[in-house]
Amino acid sequence: MLAMLYRAVPGCTELYPAVPSRSGPCHPLRPAACFRGGGLGMLRRVAAVVGVPLLRATPGGPGRAGLSRGRPREEEDDEEEEVMMEEEGGFPLYPGHIPTSPLQKALLAAGSALAALRDPYRHDMVAVLGETTGCLALPSLRDKMRQHPEGYRILQERPRIRLSTLDMDRLQGLPDGTLGREYVRFLEDNKVSPDTRMPAKFVDDEELAYVIQRYREVHDLMHTLLGMPTNMLGEVVVKWFEAVQTGLPMCILGAAFGPVRLNARKLQVLATELVPWAIRSGRNASCILNVYYEQRWEQSVESLREEIGILPPPAVRV
């Protein structure tokens, strides 16, 4: 069922990397380049799943598309798709954007939520869930950034945290305790890369797409500032902090359902020490998206915690 749902929406074939695309085999590091079939065929598969016809007849006769029988089917699909996108105002708004209807977003949200609950480390599912359920939280975060001098500058300059924009050698050479050095240490210790963050695709606003992209790219910095590893307990603690900070439904779901995979000892530590601290810190801290982290690499982690309002982490082993 989930396979049918995700294959029914344009651009979701990266969730099934073994499926070849028109342009060739899917590349594991370039998921956005993997598409299966035309957008019209994908929309039809959505219609087949939910039993709702998504296509409307175009001039040329009742129930007919008015297209020449002699033309390749692929060209017919592309032309019908263009007509439908013109009618619905569904043209891409930024590179990589995949326009989707409310029905398609609901299908994606439901399917990605189930998949993420089954495997919390499916970052592609977590990303889709965040984009398809953040319609209320993202504008609020964007407004907070607009009203803050540093946040407003971030929105204007659109910095990215990627290996191509980071001077890893310089960060590695910074003194211990600085944000840059501790961030690199976090990446090395947990064997993660900033390039694993998926680009936004389903957010129907170019500026809001950047907001959620920025949230994803500072996520590892939240681990660094909170002193949390990437194991399940650490991820749940960070999600509690982010849920209070951002109001994103994806963070709330992760905070609520992530603990089901923890053992009794970790649950006790989480409930008595870590969750209360994460909630207090989330409420006390200023908006985490209003910090230009790229200009704070030489600042000490302790100093930045105090500036943002993150309380000192409890002395427990995570």
- Any idea how many domains? 2
Q: What is the tally of helical segments? A: 15
Number of strands: 0
The ordered H/E elements are HHHHHHHHHHHHHHH
Indicate the overall shape: globular
Strand content: under 5%
Q: How would a crystallographer describe the biggest sheet?
A: none
Task: Give helix % range.
Answer: 40-55%
From the helix content, strand content and strand pairing, which structural class follows? mainly alpha
Radius of gyration over C-alpha positions, nearest whole angstrom = 22 Å
Distance between the termini: 37 Å
- Low-pLDDT stretches are 13-70
Mean pLDDT: 81
Topology at a glance:
Elements: H1 2-7, H2 39-50, H3 73-88, H4 102-118, H5 123-133, H6 137-146, H7 149-157, H8 168-172, H9 179-190, H10 206-217, H11 219-226, H12 232-246, H13 249-257, H14 264-284, H15 301-308
Helix pairs in contact: 4-5, 6-7, 6-10, 9-11, 12-13, 12-14
What does this 3D model show about the protein?
The protein has helices at residues 2-7, 39-50, 73-88, 102-118, 123-133, 137-146, 149-157, 168-172, 179-190, 206-217, 219-226, 232-246, 249-257, 264-284, 301-308. It folds into two domains: 2-58 and 75-91, no CATH class; 134-308, no CATH class. It is mainly alpha-helical and 318 residues long. Mean pLDDT is 81; it is low at 13-70. α6 (137-146) crosses α10 (206-217) and α12 (232-246) packs antiparallel against α13 (249-257). Lyase that catalyzes the C1-decarboxylation of 4-hydroxy-3-methoxy-5-(all-trans-polyprenyl)benzoic acid into 2-methoxy-6-(all-trans-polyprenyl)phenol during ubiquinone biosynthesis. This is Ubiquinone biosynthesis protein COQ4 homolog, mitochondrial. Residues 60-81 are annotated as: Disordered. Zn(2+) binds at residues 219-220, 223, 235.
